[in-house]
Amino acid sequence: MPLMVLPILGQVSVSESLVAIITICVVYLLMRLNRIKIPDGLQKLPGPKPFPIIGNVLELGNNPHLSLTEMTKTYGPVFQIQIGMRPVVVLSGNDVIRQALLKQGEEFAGRPDMHSSKFISDGKSLAFSTDQVGVWRARRKLALSALRTFSTVQGKSGEYACALEEHISNEGLYLIQRLHNVMKSDGSFDPFRHIVVSVANVICGICFGRRHSHDDDELVRLVNMSDEFGKIVGSGNPSDFIPFLRVLPSTTMKKFIDINKRFGKFMQKLVSEHYETFDKNNIRDITDSLINHCEDRKLDENSNLQVSDEKIVGIVNDLFGAGFDTISTALSWSVVYLVAYPEMQVRLQKELNEKIGTDRTPRLSDRTELPLLEAFILEIFRHSSFLPFTIPHCTSRDTSLNGYFIPKDTCVFVNQWQVNHDSELWKDPYSFNPDRFLSADGTELNKADAEMVLVFGLGKRRCIGESIGRAEVFLFLAILLQRLSFSGIPGETLDLTPEYGLTMKHKRCLLRVTPQPGFEPQTTLS
């Protein structure tokens, strides 16, 4: 999602400036002459009138999710803006989005051909790639099969139901001890700083079967690269929307390419190590599971569409990057909300004490027994809407929606934030109220309302790691709430205003933590 389409381009000569100006004029004239013909019975998409070259970028401002939501009031749930020189259709409203992504899923399942996407996993990213439908579908099927296989892999200890539960539980307990140590030395802690490293360790565990010390250089580099990637993608790449900018120097684009090269090289090394030590009878992690399924496809004479080994790196890259950023952001927001709404924290701890007690660690199988915690997580997803948009979609052929004609290869933004704050769907949508998802007696989750919350997308491009993501957020929070109480710094007010990006983060803050009765720290970790 672009925030800026006019970056600082460095020094440009007079001749280069003249060429750029002439190019702009020629392209603009060609666009005017090449207007799309609307088929009979359909209407032209409504929307604000764009400026030449820059389009409607000035109207988006620093918070596009708010600007586009406001435009919905004028133009309806389906309208068109222009970002730079690229037409973009914006979808809002629960019914419209479900119509497009579910009932007309094939027509809206593409990805736009963005210049920057070619540098993500060398153009082999499952999430961003513009692969043909058959290739993309085969890779997605491979990834889903690998995830299902991994979900049944047993942990090293018989104490846990699966390896996933073991990774999350161990890291959750380590994080608690780490926070006690930080409190002892500093008197407060930065929630994002410590949660992000713990989540990265879980992702390392499920993807590569290893964990790192919180101070490990390799892990810190991974965290920093992911953070840089998110910031650049969230701020938008101007050359995705104004093609002639691709020939001009851009420090941001150079940095983006460098990050992807470093990240890809790191992932390639880990995947290569897995190939060297792969044992079909000992599936250690998701990478092993992917290799196993890929090997099965090579032996399958009826499989007419093979997935190259190199694309395994792209799939692992996607799972690591998306899972890491999404989950760490969700958990960090959750801790901040616990401090902002202390009465809810008390209720959640009471539920845990009554249903789980203090004799054992919460498990994934406890989800049905903790409806308030599930409702709290749903309300975090809805109220913060830290994923305001899905990754952009693209129409795979000429189509129509709500009576409007949408040509093939049109870029489509799905405004999840608008749906999660739509007053037609939610009572008092700007109020934080987990009880909205519970039955009148508070004992059951309202599944119909839960399904209306948009966070992982819908349809054929729905996030493949959703089930792991939801499980990780639940179990981390259950373990933290069972053993800790979170509070703010006296005299300081929390600011819940999100900072816009690919995933919207809360403003950095310092919090405090104290042990729950019966869970006082016993030892000190290095």
TrEMBL record:
Single Gene Ontology BP annotation: progesterone metabolic process
EC number: 1.14.14.1
Binding residue positions for heme: 463
Record-stated family: Belongs to the cytochrome P450 family.
Cited PANTHER family: CYTOCHROME P450 1A, STEROID 17-ALPHA-HYDROXYLASE/17,20 LYASE
InterPro entries in the cross-refs: Cyt_P450, Cyt_P450_CS, Cyt_P450_E_grp-I, Cyt_P450_E_grp-I_CYP1, Cyt_P450_sf
Protein name: Cytochrome P450 1A
Function recorded in the entry: Cytochromes P450 are a group of heme-thiolate monooxygenases. They oxidize a variety of structurally unrelated compounds, including steroids, fatty acids, and xenobiotics.
Record's keyword terms, sorted: Endoplasmic reticulum, Heme, Iron, Membrane, Metal-binding, Microsome, Monooxygenase, Oxidoreductase
Cofactor(s) it depends on: heme
Organism: Danionella cerebrum
